[in-house]
Write a structure and sequence with these properties.
It is a single chain. By secondary structure, the chain is an alpha+beta fold. The chain has one domain (15-105). Helices cover 49% and strands 23% of the residues. The protein is built from one helix and four strands; from the N terminus they run ββββα. The strands form two sheets. It has a two-stranded antiparallel ribbon with strand order 1-2. The protein has a two-stranded antiparallel sheet with strand order 3-4. The longest helix is centred in the last third of the chain and has 55 residues, at 52-106.
Length: 112
């Protein structure tokens, strides 16, 4: 079975050459855009032209992936901060106990 791309749902053509005043003019649909990026499989930079409406599913998937990465980085940062906070609290408690012991030992001394 042969597959063909259907006409634009908006009734436009992506690019169309028209003759105006004897000169060819290129009319480009405002929805016909170039999406640039890096191919995740090969690492090569890409720049493909296509309809913005057709790009939407791929861009939404990419946005979800980037959001997931950001959430993972935030969670990792949070876990590190909790760990450091616990260490800091333990150090403060140890310092407090040591200070209290010194004060208690010093209570029995008399002033000269």
């Amino acid at each position: 079975m042969e597959t063909r791309i259907a006409d634009c749902p908006l009734g436009a053509k992506c690019e169309e050459i028209k003759i105006e005043a004897g000169k060819p003019m290129l009319y480009r649909c405002p929805w016909y855009v170039q999406v640039r990026g890096v191919d995740m499989n090969t690492g090569e930079e890409t720049g493909n032209w296509g309809c913005a409406i057709a790009w939407m599913p791929a861009l939404m998937i990419n946005t979800a992936n980037e959001s997931r990465k950001g959430a993972a980085a935030t969670e990792s940062f949070r876990n590190e901060m909790v760990k450091r906070s616990a260490q800091s609290q333990q150090m403060q408690e140890a310092l407090f106990v040591a200070t209290q012991q010194k004060l208690l030992q010093g209570e029995g001394k008399t002033c000269e």
